[in-house]
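INFO worker-7 received task bundle
INFO bundle size: 2
INFO processing item 0
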Amino acid sequence: MGKKRIERKRALTVAFLCSGIIVWNGCGLEESASKDAETVEEEQAEQIQGEDTEAQAEETENPTLGEESVPDSADAKEEEKSDSEEENAEKPQTLQEAQIRHYYSGVLSQLIAAGQLPYLGEVHPLFEDRDMSTNLFAVTDIDGDGREELIVCYLNGGMAGTFEVVYGYDPIAGELKQEFCYYPTFTYYDNGIICASWSHNPRMAEFWPIDVYQYDPESDSYMTVGTVDTLEREICERWYGKPFPEELDTDGDGVLYRIDNTWSDEYEDYKYNQADFEEWFGVYTEGAMTISIDYQPIEYESFADFTPTYLKRLAHEAGRERTDTASDLGLLILNEAHFLDAAKTLLSEKYDVVMEQPEENFEEYTVGTVSGKEVFTFTALDAGDLSYSGEKLDDVTIFGIYPGISVDGAWEKLKAYGFYASPYGEVENCLITGEGFGNVSIWFSAEDGVVTEITVRPYCAFAG
């Protein structure tokens, strides 16, 4: 291979690697060759919702579909059901649930790699080492809307910098919303109530002040319903310079409560007794159970399966209409830890592709030739990338596309595998499956509306 070809390949590799660095400008894709990212995501979400509904209906009509035998007794059925529920307790049950977790993986990846959170920017002005493992997160349906929320508990910033934030993602609208953010001393209730203790107790009273919030489905956020703190006999004179209003203290415990839905610190506002508080609080919490949150450390291992689960489920759906998935090099990224080695092995053993290293001082670069023509290139730098150019080789594809397919056809194929236009792409026809760790990026060049060269690699927008 000539030096010009090697230099061009290096230049393309550098440009492609650069697309993984945080770039906040738009991708600059032309409308005729690209799709709007939000439109594509909405179409995917609607497709997923339809597939989930269809699958659930199929299971209802034929609950033994795919089974070789049916248990003979009710006890056997119950035992089988119990085992299945235990096995799948931590797994998302639908594609839409997997999609939501995939999106949250992107949020957590951004926090780990870039120290940023949506709506909050830099999580702390003194944040430097970005070791987030002492902080916590959880994914659970906390507000009762039927979708899981992402809870991030940030504890590294000292008392003034700590917080707990609740995010909700709507996969149909493609929107992430910050539902709630407060000092991390919450009690969650299963009826949508949050009881949040203040970070400080200004009067050092025995009762620690609280704010109470209620989930509002219309705004998809938590609204304040009341704030409560107390005034005690021992500090009244010192605090207000006035005597404690004994006539209001009907239970005689020397404590009066302030119950209001807005902030106030007026002497006259402390006029309720403990029974009044309990009655008021009971309106919001009676019959409700507190929710136990399964927090995990914010480290990649804690959510490493979110994105692969989603992408493999999409690939399974997309592959139902295909007969050539066994020779799809893109799918190796989803299933093989060393996808470059797996691709080389597949191509050399099944298609007699000859592997060569054309430059002695560039061992990370390998080309695969067919009848003396370069068709495949492999670059083992960073996460590694694989290119496919020239003419289609038998049934070899990359996520269903190949040299010679139309640009429109390539976009349609890639959409089925979860790809959408990269907002960070510096070139035309650059697509990604998501922004967090474990995603995939693909770029292809085209002439006269036909794909000529394809490059694919693992991807994270926040790791450059």
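INFO item 0 finished
INFO processing item 1
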Amino acid sequence: MSPEIINLIVQLVSGAIGGNAAGKINKGFDLGALLNSVAGAAGGVGGGYLLSTLLPNLITTAEGAGFDVGAILGQAVGGGVGGLVLTAIIGFIKNRAAA
């Protein structure tokens, strides 16, 4: 599997987890499980891309036949934080519009 696909999968999954964490941490940001996951996944890809741009050594997760665990963890952290932040922003805007 190509490194770009591995990066994308890690970012999507960790972003969805981060999005759901945002909804659990603050009920004001909760969009429901499905929308938390979707917003989180989108934020995860954005956060992972931003982190990869700032730290170029995280771009390649596969080295030869093995995986670079540090790079995968970096993608997971970037994706999780990105997912949490985007979900929180969307939840905040949604709640402000409803008020």
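INFO item 1 finished
INFO post-check item 1: The chain has a mean pLDDT of 85.
INFO post-check item 1: Helices lie at 3-25, 33-54, 69-98.
INFO worker-7 idle
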